[in-house]
Design a protein that fits this description.
This protein has helices spanning about 5-20, 20-35, 35-60, 60-65, 70-95, 110-125, 125-140, 145-170, 175-180, 185-205. Mean pLDDT is about 85; it is low at about 100-105. The protein is globular, with a radius of gyration of 18 Å. The protein is an all-alpha fold. The chain has one domain.
Length: about 210
């Protein structure tokens, strides 16, 4: 009965998750700096962040955000500040000696909890994701759709997001791919930092 609605959601999500953004940047940086394992934990955090968006949409908080520009802009500024922090940190790391370590197949040990939190906060604070789920739950999903079905949609979106970034982690964490990206040395870190700062500025400007 809800297959048409589900397919619309799945297709919209595919285009949204495939478009480069903060989630992609942090997963890429984690994979190159620390390997596939770090990328997978970060991807798990990103996927879990989807459940946060789904949760507040089901509870009606998304409607409150849409009706309160000041509150929504405040959330955008928080997201911009977080991305700015990550960008500056990345550039600062690039100024340290041997920031990018040659791997030769080895992976730098990274605490799973930190990688997970990084992914979760990056996705959870992403206003682009907030707008996407707001549109999804107010335009695509019918008010008559049972809460149980909406929860199923949310679980699918979280799993699909994790699967997408886990696949990218496997590719980007490959020894040869990492070696190629690491050949840029500190410039890779600076590039990632610059992109994160650009995204932060873009979010802050759109919030004003």
């Amino acid at each position: 009965m809800y297959w048409a609605e589900f397919l619309t959601i799945a297709i919209a999500h595919l285009f949204a998750v495939a478009s480069p953004g903060p989630d992609f940047v942090v997963v890429l940086r984690q994979c190159v700096a620390s390997g596939t394992r770090a990328g997978l934990w970060t991807s798990f955090g990103v996927g879990s962040g989807i459940l946060l968006h789904v949760g507040y949409c089901i509870l009606g908080v998304a409607l409150l955000l849409s009706q309160s520009p000041a509150l929504f802009n405040g959330m955008k500024y928080i997201a911009a500040a977080y991305l700015l922090y990550l960008g500056i940190q990345s550039i600062r790391d690039s100024l340290k000696p041997a920031t990018i370590v040659k791997t030769n197949g080895e992976e730098i040990s990274v605490e799973p909890r930190k990688a997970f939190v990084l992914g979760f906060l990056t996705n959870g604070l992403n206003p682009k994701a907030t707008l996407f789920f707001l549109a999804l739950f107010t335009v695509v999903i019918s008010p008559d759709t049972p809460i149980s079905m909406q929860i199923i949609y949310g679980i699918y979106l979280a799993i699909a997001t994790f699967a997408w970034f886990a696949m990218l982690s496997k590719i980007l964490g490959n020894e040869n791919v990492r070696a190629w990206l690491q050949s840029a040395g500190a410039w890779f870190e600076r590039g990632m930092g610059t992109i994160l700062i650009f995204l932060a500025v873009q979010i802050a400007v759109n919030a004003s």
